Amino acid sequence: MELFDNLPAMDLMRSEKMTFVQLIIPVESAHRAVSYLGELGLLQFRDLNVDKSPFQRTFVNQVKRCGEMSRKLRFIKDQINKAGLVSSTRPALQLDIELEELEIELSEHENELIEMNSNSEKLRQTYNELVEFKMVLQKAGGFLVSAQSHAVVEGRELDENVYLKDDYVERASLLEQSEPSNQAGLRFISGIICKSKALRFERMLFRATRGNMLFHQATAEEHIVDPVSAEMIEKTVFVVFFSGEQAKTKILKICEAFGANCYSVPEDITKQRQITREVLSRLSELEATLDAGVNHRNKALTSIGFHLKKWTIMVRKEKAVYDTLNMLNFDVTKKCLVGEGWCPIFAKPQIQEALQRATFDSNSQLGIIFHVMDAVDSPPTYFRTNCFTNAFQEIVDAYGVARYQEANPAVYTVITFPFLFAVMFGDWGHGICLLLGALILIAREKKLGSQKLGSFMEMLFGGRYVLLLMSLFSIYCGLIYNEFFSVPYHIFGASAYKCRDTTCSDSHTAGLVKYHDPYPFGVDPSWRGSRSELPFLNSLKMKMSILLGVTQMNLGIMLSYFNARFFGSSLDIRYQFLPQMVFLNSLFGYLAFLIVIKWCTGSQADLYHVMIYMFLSPTEDLGENQLFWGQRPLQVLLLLSAIIAVPLMLFPKPFILRKLHSERFQGRTYGILGTSEIDLDLEPDSARKHHEDFDFSEIFVHQMIHSIEFVLGAVSNTASYLRLWALSLAHSELSTVFYEKVLLLAWGFDNFVIRLVGLAVFAFATAFILLMMETLSAFLHALRLHWVEFQNKFYHGDGYKFIPFSYASLADEED
Asked: Where are the transmembrane segments (predicted)?
């Protein structure tokens, strides 16, 4: 064991050692100190005002001011986007501006923009009214001429039809007795309405006037721009002929209700032309005024856009500083702020240097006190990762954040995850396609990292190095399976088999004989298409899956040993690690051993029979299923070991813990035996050991559940690794179907179009089914094997992340 102690520590194997610290900061240097700590990003503050609401905290007014400035900046950004301008991504060179000055400047810009928007809306409204008036003058003139010549006839017909259909309709209709000499009472209202409302508007007018009106409409040639939403609206010009003040009042109310704009059109054509000329003149003036206003507004927005990014970052930082200051408490003198938090031990000198700079820069007479304290709570978990290891750490953290300083599965996941994926996905043709995609993402890393990506592309970009390793391992496993889009190649030399006769007419089903040494690397190409291909590959991949599964589960149990050794828990080593190793390897380790022996000796023994009768009749003679001398007594010994290991896992530990607990409280001993089960943490330089109330029944039930789960899980987890065989076989067979039944079938026709269609279908199936759906499927199954089968042997995953106060984390945040 001294060998393990002398090994150098791995960076990712254990989380960084943390320490609990207290800061006593004079009020005059508090803002600058927190700001410098935000730039450093290595201190996680603890909220000392949990019992207070956000409105009861000290710096609530400053937070409100920052929130108001953020709102103004969002308003300005929206205005820039609406104007179709692009705000500068690079902050403009400008002298540093104070927060108070920025607040005043933002208010001025907001008021200026609101005023310009208001004036623009008024001008646009006036412009729209003039455009509508122009269209009404153009369309209504034709209505008036035709209406005057045909009003009498249409009025009579309308009145007769309505009277016949409805007995309650008044008989004194609008034009019932109208003669050419008696048309002085005929009046009209002209206007314009949205085209979508025109039909309902006409029906309402007809019902309100009981049919005593004439309605003419025509679609406006120009669309009107809505001044609020800036959308183009299609409108319809209408003219309503009626008689009487009562009908006029009803029609005007209906027009108001439907949002129709009414315009007075003179009957005299000369006056119409005169008014049209005036309207056109005013329209040209308004167009010039609107263009000048838009140009002025765009210039103002462009000048603001140069500073927008810098101002946004500044306001976010200030708000973050005041939010952090609200987590601090005043001391009894009200002259100092007291803060507490966690930091990595390696960061203490950097934090102290930042605090000294803050004291010097703020010209404070008092220095900032920074000292280490003991804490009852467990420290947060912090792993220093880079762009390569971060994605693998995220895969592990998605299951659960590691408990403080427990073994980190991400160290092994870097290799085991892409390898198990490749076992299921193995095809070096498909692997090359994935490799090209990963290399494109890595080559454009800087460009894509600075862009706003969609959810799918962001996930793909974040896992680019996972994709890289998955593709490399897929190429490796594809070479072992000897599959290139399901086609075998003689890459590593000639096949070890040849035909029995010279014709080779039936060589795929019979007549193959082995004539020299086995194929040097991977599966011999001659197996492809042979009668025994599927039984051979099934046997190979199934046994290989069991070997890989037993190996990875043993690795998980070994890591539980290193966890127990690190935390000084001899109980976990004696009554958890050792029984688990004995139980797993007595059964499934022995099965893996038999597989290797069978492969090495070429024996025809039935391993199913051996394992079943190991339990049913362990003393029975093995006969032709015996693989080596002394196999039967070894099986009896292994079976007894597995049976004894179960009570060793279940009973000793709870009773020993109860004995130690009773002795500790009777004063006979003060030694504490650390154990992971009762959460006794060793935190160097930081946290004190703490002990919860001992409940024997709870400990015993927990141990019983843990033991039963392991015993049953040893069987189910081993069976779960057979998914490696199943998905590998499915991927291979699916690829073969697409190749033989689509590509080769199409290539058998002497027709270019059919060949092109076959090639397109094959490419589509390869890209979307094999490279997308199968990749996702294999990824999820590899994820399950790591989360359930591997990590449950040693990984608690009940910690919490170290989230320091850092300006860097504000860069991509949206308010």
From this structure: 419-442, 463-481, 544-562, 582-599, 634-651, 752-773
Longest dimension (CA), the chain: 131
For residue 473, what are the CA distances in angstroms to 122, 418, 592, 774? 67, 7, 23, 15
Q: How far apart are CA 711 and CA 714, in angstroms?
A: 5
Helix (H, G, I), strand (E, B) or coil at 46: strand
Q: What letter represents residue 382's amino acid?
A: Y
Q: Is 506 helix (H, G, I), strand (E, B) or coil?
A: coil
DSSP-assigned letter for residue 801: B
Helix (H, G, I), strand (E, B) or coil at 13: coil
- Residues 714-719: contacts with CB within 8 Å, 24+ apart? 714/553, 714/583, 714/584, 714/587, 714/588, 717/549, 717/553, 717/788, 717/789, 718/546, 718/549, 718/550, 718/553, 718/588
Is the distance from CB of 427 to CB of 735 less than 8 angstroms?
yes
pLDDT at 10: 57
Mean pLDDT, range 433-440, rounded to an integer: 95
The DSSP string of 677-713 is: GGT----TTSBPP--PPP-HHHHHHHHHHHHHHHHHH
CA–CA gap between residue 108 and residue 119 (Å, rounded): 16
Average pLDDT in the 211-222 region? Answer: 85
For residues 721 and 466, what is the distance between their CA atoms, to the nearest angstrom? 21
Q: Which of 309, 273, 340 has the alpha carbon at shortest distance from 48?
A: 340
- Domain ranges in the chain? 18-110+294-372, 123-150+185-289, 425-498+511-530, 535-665+696-799
Q: Report the alpha-carbon angle 60-61-63, nearest 5.
A: 65
Cβ neighbour number for residue 488 with a 10 Å cutoff: 18
Element (H, E) at 126: helix 99-165
Weakest mean pLDDT among 516-530, 674-688, 730-744: 674-688
Please state, in angstroms and rounded to a whole number, the distance separating the CA atoms of residues 673 and 419. 39
Work out the pLDDT band at 696, boundaries 50, 70, 90.
Answer: confident
Q: Give the model's pLDDT for residue 671.
A: 47
**Average of per-residue pLDDT values in the chain:** 84
Residue 3: exposure state from Cβ atoms within 10 A (0-12, 13-18, ≥19): exposed
Distance of CA 355 to the CA centre of its chain: 37
Separation of alpha carbons 468 and 494, rounded Å? 31
Topology (CATH) of 123-150+185-289: Alpha-Beta Plaits (3.30.70)
Judge contact between 346 and 16, C-beta under 8 A.
Answer: yes
pLDDT at 502 over 90: no
At 306, which amino acid appears?
Answer: F
Q: Are 305 and 85 in contact (CB under 8 A)?
A: yes
The alpha-carbon radius of gyration of the chain (Å, integer) is: 42
Query: What would the pLDDT profile of 36-94 be if each residue is shown by its tens digit?
Result: 999 999 999 999 988 888 888 889 999 999 999 999 999 999 999 888 887 665 555 55
Q: What is the DSSP string of 521-582?
A: SSS-GGGTTSTTHHHHHHHHHHHHHHHHHHHHHHHHHHHHHHHHHHTT-HHHIIIIIHHHHH
Which pLDDT belongs to residue 407?
93
107-159 residue pLDDT tens: 999 999 999 988 988 888 888 888 888 888 887 766 665 555 554 444 444 44
Q: For 539-557, write each residue's pLDDT tens digit.
A: 999 999 999 999 999 999 9
List strand residue ranges (DSSP E) for 716-795, in order.
Answer: none
With a cut of 60, say whether residue 668 has pLDDT above it: no
Residue of higher predicted confidence among 227 and 445: 445
pLDDT at position 415: 95
Phi, psi (deg, nearest 5) at residue 416: -70, -35
806 to each of 48, 565, 802, how far by Cα in Å?
Answer: 19, 35, 11
